[in-house]
Every structure is written in structure tokens, then in C-alpha cells.
Amino acid sequence: MEQSSYSNLATTHLLGSVPAVLNEEKKASYEVPGANMQIFPPSNGGGGYQTLGAPTEVFEQQPPNNWKGVFSISSYTQYFNVDTDVVINRLISSFYPIGGDFFSKIDANPDLYGLIWITTTLVFVLASFGNCATYLTQKHSDSSTSWSFDVSYVNVAACGVYGYAVVVPMAFYFLLRYLGSNASLIRFWCMWGYSLSIFIPTALILLIPVEILRWIIILIAGTASACFVALNLRSYIEGNDLPMMVVASFLLQMALAIFIKVWFFP
Amino acid sequence: MSNSHSDTIPLHASSQSDIDEIENLIHASVQSGPATVHPARPPSPPRASIPVSSSPFIQSNIPPPSSLSSSSSNQKVPSVPAAPPPPPPVGNSSSIVATGFGPPPNTLTEPVWDTVKRDLSRIVSNLKLVVFPNPYREDPGKALRDWDLWGPFFFIVFLGLTLSWSASVKKSEVFAVAFALLAAGAVILTLNVLLLGGHIIFFQSLSLLGYCLFPLDIGALICMLKDNVIVKVIVVCVTLAWSSWAAYPFMSSAVNPRRKALALYPVFLMYVSVGFLIIAID
User: Where is the composition biased (Low complexity) (chain B) (predicted)?
Assistant: First the structure.
């Protein structure tokens, strides 16, 4: 069956269409009237193609295949295709724990910019404000201490934050795949990355050297972040009954919050 | 054939005068101008133009009459022991310039101080272009056309050393953190711009980010010498602003204007973290 005859169809101007494999020598003849090819909705062409069988790619939720190899920058630019206002919009929406619609917001265009730079900012903020907070706490209890900068805070912050932000979404992704449901690693990374953004202003507030206040603040922030993660995860995997995953994600985020408090702001 | 001798390059006392001969040739050729490039000498195969190598320079067929004796290892040069007359521009007309490299082939024979001086002057001129307030500042996209990585290397190492000296404990860890932060940071910032769809040349950007560290170097030096917190904060703020001002036009012109803030924020973050390190190291 000549699948390559579909190469004659004039569909490449349509959004979302993926050109079929071109086969030069067969170029001649067969011109499908193709009326139904022209009219399907351009934004999501999955339905239209299926009437012709599967020679052309079904347009699934993964982006079209721009992968030019691991070492080529252009294969990663598709994950950074965001403008300033888009990033700010996503950042602000991550502060509202109750929304539950983050995945639909990022569905068409998930980005890794947020993940990378929010985690990096958090590492810096934890290392610097952690040192300040430690100093203030010691000064509070024993007013003769002098400032000392502990550079190991940078190492611990880097390992902790980067490790969490990279490993936890991967674990959830593999787990969900194993259990059969559909998951997208990039979207998970994106969501978890933005969920960490609430800890940045929190770290600023945690400078106040009153112990009770610190615990209250971190619990509030941790709960907000964990709710954000859990609710979004639940809305993403709806249809599959996996409450344990949702609860696990909540608990992991809370654990991160408590670790931040205990290590950096004692 | 002269080649047979030319595999070994004996370092006689004659070498020095041979080198002088080469210098003379070079000066003569430079004076005679590039017009005499490429007289198309068939017998000479194309070769790498290392002046003191044994590769047959063009003149191997036309050794100036006095040269014949032995060590034609300095081919263009009639070997000295025969007390040659200083070779007239016979040798020059195609010798050096024809290699296509122009003046640079003599970098192997020049004194080390000349090499160092050349690199230093390049560093200084790049600094003046990039960092110092300059009302005739060029279009930043073309700034640092003549990029090099020595300058950034010196500045990063100097900053790491200064921070390490200032620290009272964990000195080596401080150096490691500072160096890693700056080096990896420059690479990551460049990659960030490339990933956002911007157009920059990788090494040019590394070079520029390294040069923009110069104000922070000065700040770190001042903070090391003067240990007052208020002074440190002020000095670091000023030098931080200066560094950011230097880096801003280059980075912002490299990306789509709608993504300018996305490209600039990481630069700002890196300089702020370095500034914090400078203040905080006690």
C-alpha cells in the first residue's frame, strides 16, 4: 500500500500538520481530492488525520519532533519558548494553591526556564539568608557572637534543591508510566519548578529570629506549596484513582519545607 | 638536499645570529610590503610556516650563494658560519608573507616579553572597550570582536584568590565555590541566551562576562583591605551596578526584546551572588 502517495497532499500549510515522508519518485500522480484534509480544525489535527489511517503522525501532546541530538542546542530551544510576561504569569499563578489548573495553563508550551532559574535563585537565597538568619539567631541568644560565613550552606542548598527538583518529578513520572497512565516529564518538571517559587519570599520573612514565628511561617508556606503540587497533580491524573500519589507529593513538599527550616534557619 | 640536514636543528651559537638573520628578513619583508606575496613558487609544497622548522622554505632552491654550508635548518637564512653577507631581500619576497600567515609566524622567535606584552595590551584594550564608561562606546553587539579568554581567566582567578584570602576559615572551599560559580555561571548564562533563541557567539559571550567582572575584582580588593561592613556594602553596591551596566547592553541586544528580562535576570543574579560573597566573607 503506497503510504507515500500521501506526500502529494497540500497540507503543510495547515497548523499542526506534519508532512508525510516525501518520496521523490512517486511524485507524479495520485492526488487525493483531500476535501476533508482541508477543513479539520487547525489547532489540533488529531481527529482529521485519522480518517486517512496512520501514515502521518498522530498529533499527540508531545511537541513535534525537533530532536537533533543530545548535544545540539536547537533541540532544547523548544522548551524555552516563553516570553517575559508568560513567565511572570505562571509565577504569579503558582502562588495560589487552590487553583488546580496549572497544567492546563502550561499544556501547550511547558518551559524549563522556570525550573532552572527558580531553583538557582532559591539556592542563592537559602545560602545567603540562611547565613544571616543563623547569625541573627545566635546573636539573639548570645550577643557576643560575631559574623561567620559558612560556605557549606551553598553546597547543601545546591544539592538539596537541585536534587529535589530533578529527582522527585522524575520519580513520579516513572511511577505513573509504570502504572499505565499518561504522563509528561517536561510538564512535571515545569510544575514542580514553579511550585518552589513560594519559598523565595518565605526565606526573606524567615529572617526574623523568633522561633515560633519561623515555624508558623514555614508551615504556612509549606502547606501552600504542597497544596499547589497536590491539587495540580490530582487534576492531571484524574480518571485514575491514585490518591496515594497525591498524598505522597503533598508530604514530600512538606518535608522539603521542614528541611529548609531546620537546616538553614535553625 | 637541504632537508636532510634540517631534521636536526642544532643549537649552535650560530643560532642566535640565524635568528637575527630571520629578524632582518622579516623586517625587510615587512618593509617591502605585502605586494610581494605569493610569487607562486612551484617547487615548494605548501607547508606550515614555522620559521625554524625544517620544512623547506621557498628558498631551498635558491639558497643565497653563501649559504650552502650545512645547517640549512634556518633555511631562509644563509647559515652563518660561512659569514654570509646579510641576505638581501632575496629571501623575503615570498618567504614569510607567502605562508599566508603574515606577521604572526614570528611569534615563535620573538622574545617572551613581546608575546606577553601583546596579550596584556589586548586585555587592556578590551577592558577599555567593555567596562569603562566610554561615550564612544561601540555597538555592543560588535564589542569585543577581538575576544580572548586570558582576561576573564585572570579576573576570575583573582577574584577567587581575593575571596580566599579574606576568608578566615575554609579558605579552599571558598575559592572553589567562587571559581565554580563564576566559571559555570558564565557558561550557563551564555547557554541561557542561546536557549531563549538569542544570537551570540559562545566564546565572545564568555569573554565579555569575564571582563565585566573587573569592577567586582576592584570591589573585592577594597573589601579585603578595609573590613568595615558599611564600607563593604557601599563598595559592593557601586561595583555591582558598574558590572551590570557593562554587561547590560550586550546581553539585551542579543535576544528578542520580549525576552530581555529573561536573559538579563540571571546575569543580575550571578553578580548579586558574587557581591554577597564579597560582603559576607569575613
Answer: 49-80
